[in-house]
Amino acid sequence: MKQEISFIPREQLKPKPDPASLGFGKYFSDYMFAMDYHSDLGWFDPRITPYEPLTLDPSAMVFHYGQAIFEGMKAYKTKDGSIQLFRPEKNMKRLNESCERLCIPQIDEDFLLEGIKELIMTEKDWVPSGEGTSLYIRPFIFSTEPYLGVRPAKQYKLLVILSPSGAYYGSQLSPVKIYVEEQFVRAVIGGVGHVKTAGNYAASLKAQEKADAGGYAQILWLDAKENKYVEEVGSMNIFFKINGEVVTPRLNGSILPGVTRDSVIQLLKHWNIPVREEKISIEEVFAAHKRGELEEVFGAGTAAVISPVGELTWKDQSIVINNNHIGQLSQDIYDEMTGIQLGKKEDPFNWTVKVASVEA
Length: 360
Ligand code: COI
Fold this sequence. Notes:
The protein is of the alpha+beta class. It folds into two domains: about 5-165, D-amino Acid Aminotransferase, Chain A, domain 1 (2-Layer Sandwich), CATH 3.30.470.10; about 175-325, D-amino Acid Aminotransferase, subunit A, domain 2 (D-amino Acid Aminotransferase, Chain A, domain 2, Alpha-Beta Barrel), CATH 3.20.10.10. The chain is about 25% helix and about 30% strand. The strands form two sheets. Strands 1, 2, 3, 4, 5, 6, 7, 8 and 18 form a nine-stranded mixed beta sheet that branches. The radius of gyration is 21 Å and the shape is globular. The protein starts with 5 loop residues before the first strand and ends with a strand. 2-OXO-4-methylpentanoic acid (COI) binds near residues 72, 235, 301, 302 and 303.
């Protein structure tokens, strides 16, 4: 039986931020979606409730053993003023894959998506409409049971919070500098690198500190076994255009299967541009640059959208890609993807899902 989503009003609404200075992940809307889990009850009490601090037991298992997973998706205001999501069913599916790996009980994907749509309807005035802006949606689940033994928890909380956001890296589409990490690794095959769990990001911070100190925007991770094959950048998947063909690392169990990654691959196939998912070593990337064949490098992710890479540093070598300019293919993919997301372009893939039409 479908559960009713209750609504708990707040007394005062917050002022909306200036759309010109949104940045990423700094502002949060008035309400959130919440639901709890208890092993005796299943998932219960779905509600749209004021966004506010939580009270948790100091022994809540998430603080000790890290059962915490999340998703990232966006709602867009189209040119006619309606609101739409981009492939949200992929995020729901991946959330359940993360649940499975972290021993968190499965959620009803359709029900959660309905809850997210209802939340967005409640918060429709928080969906920004400025160039390069969207409403970032962050569903997440964590264990709340007060207990110190190591085993899967019997109690969890699921929340969905909303953050009106602009570009992830300072400004949209400006080429970023990336540092290839050699000392630390992000994930091992058989581990949790292929799911969206908080620990993956905690483990990346030490290397990110080094990158920050060197003036790099992000890390490019190599495989943990041989320190040789390219995996991903911490907040996006990576693509190389070499001699007219596009290559992206094949999903191997330690790389996150990005929704934007999958969309870029489908788009390239649709355009008849050769694209291969395969193991690619960092030596090959640098050798292609030496031969003059490395035409473009770009990252793809929900938060980052399409992010051209202007410079890559590995050991003591730095290479500049496409003279540190936005490549034509990166630009075309960005235009097509954001065009579809914003309802400015045809959506031949049926990727967009309407949340609210203009009259709503
Ligand atoms: C996203 O692109 O939605 C992500 O989750 C990456 C992030 C850690 C900001």
